[in-house]
Amino acid sequence: MADIIHEKQDLTYLNWTRVRNSSGTAGSFLKAYSENDGKKLYYKLSNYDVMNGVTGHECVNEIIVDRLLTIIGIEHLSYTLINADIIVDGQKISTYLCMSENFRKPGEDKTALDTFYEMERQSGESPFDFCIRKGWAEYVRQMLVVDFLILNRDRHGANIEVLRNTKRRTVRLAPLFDHGLSLLSLCRSENDIAAYDVMEDKPVQCFVGSHSAKDNLGLIPSGEFPSLSLLHESDKNKLLDGLEDIISSALAEKIWEMIWKRWCYYEDLCNKK
After folding, report:
1. Crossing angle of helices 137-150/249-272, nearest 10°?
2. Phi and psi for 241 in degrees, rounded to 5?
3. Domain of 41: which CATH number?
């Protein structure tokens, strides 16, 4: 697949910055960037801790969700999964990491949605109602559906960005991005995978909704669910292609089970409403 580079790349020149893991699990996420001919590229690792190195598979989740959103027709940031050598804490590590391009257009500045909300909200206005008033209803509804399908646990107010061009007086929300803390990101062993209930409504962070991804679907009015392209069982191969030597078959199968069962639940909900 074009979104996976299996051949080992030398990225030992990157400087990694530690970012706190807001999920509450041990470890942290590391980010880096490079710039070449004015083009900025962003890199990030899966969950990392100093004792065990890279322990998570959040970067693989990004690729799977990238493919899912392409299939169902939702605008999003695209990622490339890269097999690379890097240096972290003075140690050389071989791992798969994610790369993405800058989604800002020339002249745009970015602001976290929670900051923008605090600056411009009306008295008593919820983040959800604020987004509706700003004309972002379809975006927010799509986001709530996506976050249910993948059980995204980390849609805090800085993982939704407002892009503004003050000269042109334009304001828009950035394409959906940062889906690593989703799917089976909590699973670290085959036993964890086998025991995982793909339909369990685990607590999530959602700036515009509640701590329940399932309940957040209730914010979408009857008859106003997003019009999405259909997901089919045959799309399993598209989502998992090229990952055979990167994640275990048990993890891949469970991820597909989660996406498919949640999609079927969502379709049933749409038909009921």
Report:
1. 130
2. -60, 130
3. 3.30.200
What's the pLDDT tens digit per position in 90-111? 999 999 999 999 999 999 999 9
> What is the count of structural domains for the chain?
2
Length of the chain: 273
- The answer on 88 and 189 residing in a single domain is no
> Would the pTM of this model clear 0.90, i.e. be above it?
yes
7-48 confidence digits (pLDDT tens): 999 999 999 987 644 444 445 689 999 998 888 999 999 999
Assess contact for 233 and 227: CB atoms under 8 A.
Answer: no
Q: Domain range spanning residue 27?
A: 4-101
